[in-house]
Design a protein that fits this description.
Blueprint (H helix, E strand, L loop, with lengths): L8 E7 L7 E6 L4 E7 L2 E7 L5 E6 L4 E4 L3 E7 L3 E7 L8 E3 L7
Antiparallel strand pairs: 1-8, 2-7, 2-9, 3-6, 3-8, 4-5, 4-7
Length: 105
């Protein structure tokens, strides 16, 4: 998945297409996180709060994305999906800032 970087956090994630809400709708002020999709398909929506740039993409197994600090993100499961999240610092709930985003296709 990754080679040469140091990580201080690892989480296994599952995405359910029938979930009452998507995963995310937040940003981190300090944490850089990397998401590796193991299985399934997920629509990812990103919004860079500094540049204003927006991106929407469909993640498929084997995709690896890095989310920089101050990039809001939300994930919609298109089917049951599994992923691993890695981060460059330990989990800190104070570094998770809500940021509601609507899905854009």
């Amino acid at each position: 998945m990754v080679n040469g970087d140091s990580y201080q956090f690892l989480a296994y994630l599952e995405f359910q297409p029938d979930a009452t809400k998507p995963r995310g709708n937040h940003y981190h002020a300090h944490k850089t996180e990397t998401l590796y999709l193991i299985s399934g398909r997920v629509r990812a929506v990103y919004h860079d709060l500094d540049s204003g740039e927006r991106a929407t993409m469909t993640l498929e197994p084997g995709d690896l994305v890095t989310v920089q600090p101050r990039c809001a993100h939300v994930y919609y499961a298109l089917e049951h999906s599994q992923a691993v999240e890695l981060a460059n610092r330990p989990y800190d709930p104070a570094d998770t800032h809500p940021y509601e985003m609507a899905e854009t296709i």
